[in-house]
Amino acid sequence: MSRVISYQDDIRQCTFCGKTERQVRKLVAGPGVAICDECIALCVEMIGDEERRDAERNALDVPKPAQIMQYLDSHVIGQTEAKRTLAVAVYNHYKRVNMELQEAAAGTERRQLELLRNAGEARGASDRFADVRVAKSNILMLGPTGVGKTYLAQTLAEVMHVPFVIADATTLTEAGYVGDDVETVLQRLIQEADGDLERARHGIIYIDEIDKIARKSGENTSITRDVSGEGVQQALLKILEGTVATVPLEGTRKHREQESVQIDTRDILFICGGAFVGLTDIVAQRVGAHESGFGASWHDHELTQDELLAQANADDLEAFGLLPEFIGRLPVVTTLHALGRNDLERILTEPANALVKQYQKLFLVDGVDLEFTPAAIAAIAKTAITQGTGARGLRSIIEHALEGTMYELPQMQGVARVVVDADAIVGTGKPVLLAAGERLEDAPAFRGRSAAGGASTGGAGDDAGDGTGGAHVADDADGVDGADADAAPTADIAIIHPEHDGRRSGSRRA
């Protein structure tokens, strides 16, 4: 039986679209199947679209710098320059993370299309920055203790909704020595992210006391080895810059049989903070703040510690003991100034998580309203400045003043309000317990006190501006006429100056 001979029998065709090899540019053939370059390009576009959708789903919701600043203002008092610097740095960091996710999704499609088409057709004018990689900008915060360095970093993690851990640089040592390896910091970040490596890869690590790992000066390096100083800086270099680190899931040491994971630190934001005690002396020597004589530089006024710290540069940090390579991996440097009395008073009442609000919430569980008079707020701030503890010491002052009341209140009946005045803060009185409907002026415990120490108006409003008024209340509270020795609380916080003993008589001004 005869059959029709077709000259197309020996010509291979695309299994997907049916075009012959003469109708397309390339035809990839296999055992019994073939695919043309047009179908390959269509598949690459479909895969690229899916990867872009995945990148959009995994992208972080990055708020604008003004929104970050607004959130920080509602939680942190003062430090306007530092908050602005941190807002811009965090925004740029996570904008870079999202940009790299999108580039990684589009990179696969672009590379495949460049193999199938001409490079000029695949690369448009908008891709002239395709080969540019934006480097990471870690942050270094300088400032005395108690100014809010740790709280600022913690608040940044809250507004970004990313995992956050706080590490102490003093516990880190060089690999092979007693102490924690630097990979332990990454291990804690993974644990904070509940083992999700993708979430941990976008977290924030705050390394506190970074100034304590400065290179020791005056030691013979041929005899002693600085395993907790310069060695830790060298171990942190690669992690700060961005590398794929092997992190043990358990323990602080890496063993051959131990289970471990790998995490890329390129997208982890590192914030380092420290008090850098002595750095201002280095800056003062450089700028000539303490010069004298005919060749000395002219200065209009004596530079304060905050002004000297704000002028610190890379050379000063290197003279302090940080490695130049380590300084280069912390390009964003911001300075936090010491908190004044007005700042401390605002910290007590204004933030969303203010200390006064925290204690009011605790007392409300027992059905009691807690009130602090303006004079008490001023006395707390003055005590913190006198002790030199900054904002960190505010809670301990309130705890001492309320310790006895919090011990007795749960088993007492009929107490509706507790009023804390300046006498209760400085240790010459106790918080006043009031029944429902009872006025503060009618309370027996309040009658023998000074008007300035217990009144909710007057003196506190005056002392916020010029540092007087309420400050004298805190100083003179021990000299109130009629103060009973039996009414002295157990708190050991008091500001008593012997030179004020001569003013124990006379009326007190509210």
UniProtKB/TrEMBL annotation:
Species of the source: Bifidobacterium apri
HAMAP family per record: ClpX
Positions that bind Zn(2+): 14, 17, 36, 39
Known role: ATP-dependent specificity component of the Clp protease. It directs the protease to specific substrates. Can perform chaperone functions in the absence of ClpP.
Alphabetized SUPFAM superfamilies for the sequence: Glucocorticoid receptor-like (DNA-binding domain), P-loop containing nucleoside triphosphate hydrolases
Keywords linked to the UniProt accession: ATP-binding, Chaperone, Hydrolase, Metal-binding, Nucleotide-binding, Protease, Zinc
Chain spans, region Disordered: 448-510
Family: Belongs to the ClpX chaperone family.
GO molecular function: ATP binding; ATP hydrolysis activity; ATP-dependent protein folding chaperone; peptidase activity; protein dimerization activity; unfolded protein binding; zinc ion binding
Ranges annotated as biased composition (Gly residues): 455-470
Subunit structure and binding partners: Component of the ClpX-ClpP complex. Forms a hexameric ring that, in the presence of ATP, binds to fourteen ClpP subunits assembled into a disk-like structure with a central cavity, resembling the structure of eukaryotic proteasomes.
Binding site for ATP: 144-151
Record-linked Pfam families: AAA_2, ClpB_D2-small, zf-C4_ClpX
InterPro entries named in the record: AAA+_ATPase (IPR003593), ATP-dep_Clp_protease_ClpX (IPR050052), ATPase_AAA_core (IPR003959), Clp_ATPase_C (IPR019489), Clp_protease_ATP-bd_su_ClpX (IPR004487), ClpX_bact (IPR046425), P-loop_NTPase (IPR027417), Znf_CLPX-like (IPR059188)
GO BP, one annotated term: proteolysis involved in protein catabolic process
Keyword Metal-binding among UniProt keywords: yes
Limits of the ClpX-type ZB domain: 1-55
Protein name in the entry: ATP-dependent Clp protease ATP-binding subunit ClpX
PROSITE patterns the UniProt entry points to: CLPX_ZB
